[in-house]
Specification:
It is a single chain. This protein has eleven helices and no strands. The protein is mainly α and about 240 residues long. Helix 3 crosses helix 5.
């Protein structure tokens, strides 16, 4: 299969033989997004305008803090706090029961709580991941349509986590013709069924090993069945948290 710059992350993800190739791709996209912010991006005017409006989710604030660019994070936080303080300063308390307005004379649609929630519930890094990851989903189906040998790669993979399997099925329904989608769904579903059947058996063996009568029964690779099950059903990274 001839490699192109937009196919390399996908082939790399499938080459890792993880519980889900797209979890591996997601981790790479996330690492790139975090490293982007830990680099000189925090000095970029357009980036700072975005981060002033959105900030980051708790997980990505922690990753930025752990990234050791404390000055960059402090500069980003300083202008973000200035933006938040501007919203707080412009808020007005109603004379009667009702929402705190976003600004004097503001109606219900400009409630302060809603404005703050938009900040708290948004994340520059999550948005960047979403944009880039969506393109990899599209590239996956480009490869499926234009690189016949890629079907063998998908068919031989160890399946996907439920989250990314669902994302692939939903995207395939939109991006593929009826015939192409049938072939993809048949291949992906076969891999998914095989993977989950094997996983169920491994978790069962893991449980059996807790019975003293089975102390001499070989593990047969089931030692890590629980974490692999968590990776499959909830996209939980073996090292960190949910993807």
């Amino acid at each position: 299969m001839k490699e192109k710059i937009y196919t390399i992350p996908i082939t790399d993800g499938f080459a890792q033989k993880t519980e889900c190739p797209f979890c591996a791709i997601y981790r790479k996209v996330e690492d790139d997004a975090v490293n982007f912010m830990l680099g000189p991006a925090y000095m970029d005017k357009d980036v700072r305008m975005r981060t002033n409006e959105t900030g980051f989710c708790p997980e990505h604030y922690k990753r930025l803090y752990d990234g050791q660019n404390r000055l960059g994070l402090a500069l980003t936080l300083h202008t973000h706090l200035h933006s938040v303080n501007g919203i707080l300063a412009a808020a007005s308390v109603p004379e009667r029961r009702g929402r705190i307005a976003r600004k004097p004379g503001g109606g219900a649609e400009s409630g302060l709580a809603g404005e703050i929630r938009k900040i708290y519930d948004s994340c520059f890094i999550c948005d960047r991941i979403g944009d880039n990851f969506g393109r990899y989903i599209e590239n996956f189906f480009y490869m499926w349509k234009h690189m016949p040998e890629f079907a063998e790669t998908v068919g031989n993979c160890r399946g996907f986590c439920l989250k990314h399997f669902t994302a692939l099925v939903e995207a395939g329904e939109k991006l593929l013709s009826a015939g192409d989608f049938h072939d993809f769904a048949e291949t992906a579903l076969r891999a998914q069924r095989d993977a989950f059947a094997a996983l169920e058996a491994d978790v069962g063996r893991f449980i059996q090993k807790f019975d003293y009568r089975n102390k001499d029964m070989p593990w047969d690779g089931a030692q890590d069945a629980v974490i692999r099950a968590l990776m499959r059903v909830a996209s939980v990274d073996a090292v960190g948290g949910p993807e």
